[in-house]
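Consider the tokenized backbone below.
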């Protein structure tokens, strides 16, 4: 697959990124798919095969949090196909390359739609998980978040309560349910970083889920160059300055290598 990538597109993407001071990326389910996690939509997707989950998930949780937690503990005894894939998944070369772009001062922030924790595990630091993180928990009142192993779950005393001070809010999984508002802090961070972007990458996203799909459009409207990395065409393809047709695990390592070469040459020329 690596050999089929367009070298001109790789070079053009590297040229834009090498000049960037604060690039921002939006990552979607295509990146997780490359780590063996099934997507929801499209050919072979979980929802395509099994149907979409109920749209009132958050309403069900809010109506009876104790019963929701009881069901969650029951389901944990027999992990679903998706849950099993999430537990087994490892960061792929695309995740590692994004963390490298951050480490060399090119990528200022990553907005991810994925809940699998693979970006963190690859070393990403400046990160907004707009749909939450399956491996974390969140207070529904104050918004505090913790790795799930820090939250003690007592089956005899459900639902669990907030660990912060005197909050005592109900704790749920950090993943955003159908019908649940995206946490305000995550939206603020995404908008702030989009406003700062001088180059915007979209990676493995179908660009049909909002509000995430709006951020690259907002950047494009400001005249910010847009780089799309995706094996498939998306609604953003016609807006993109550069389109790299291929999987992130093949494309991003080559782009990082090219960016490093350009920055090294620029340093020598000074």
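A designed sequence for it:
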């Amino acid at each position: 697959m690596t050999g089929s990538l367009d070298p001109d597109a790789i070079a053009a993407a590297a040229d834009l990124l090498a000049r960037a001071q604060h690039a921002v990326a939006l990552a979607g389910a295509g990146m997780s798919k490359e780590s063996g996690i099934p997507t929801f939509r499209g050919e072979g997707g979980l929802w395509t095969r099994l149907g979409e989950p109920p749209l009132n998930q958050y309403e069900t949780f809010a109506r009876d949090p104790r019963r929701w937690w009881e069901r969650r503990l029951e389901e944990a005894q027999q992990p679903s196909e998706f849950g099993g894939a999430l537990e087994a998944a490892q960061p792929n070369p695309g995740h590692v390359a994004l963390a490298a772009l951050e480490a060399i001062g090119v990528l200022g922030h990553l907005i991810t739609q994925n809940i699998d924790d693979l970006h963190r595990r690859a070393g990403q630091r400046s990160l907004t998980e707009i749909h939450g993180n399956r491996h974390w928990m969140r207070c529904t009142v104050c918004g505090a978040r913790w790795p799930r192993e820090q939250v003690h779950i007592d089956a005899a005393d459900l639902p669990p309560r907030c660990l912060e001070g005197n909050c005592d809010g109900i704790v749920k999984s950090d993943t955003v349910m159908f019908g649940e508002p995206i946490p305000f802090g995550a939206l603020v961070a995404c908008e702030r970083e989009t406003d700062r972007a001088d180059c915007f990458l979209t990676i493995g996203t179908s660009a049909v889920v909002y509000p995430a799909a709006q951020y690259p459009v907002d950047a494009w409207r400001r005249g910010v160059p847009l780089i799309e990395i995706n094996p498939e065409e998306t609604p953003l393809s016609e807006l993109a300055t550069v389109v790299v047709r291929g999987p992130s695990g093949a494309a991003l390592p080559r782009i990082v290598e090219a960016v490093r070469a350009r920055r090294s040459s620029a340093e020598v020329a000074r």
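DSSP finds eleven helices and nine strands in the chain.
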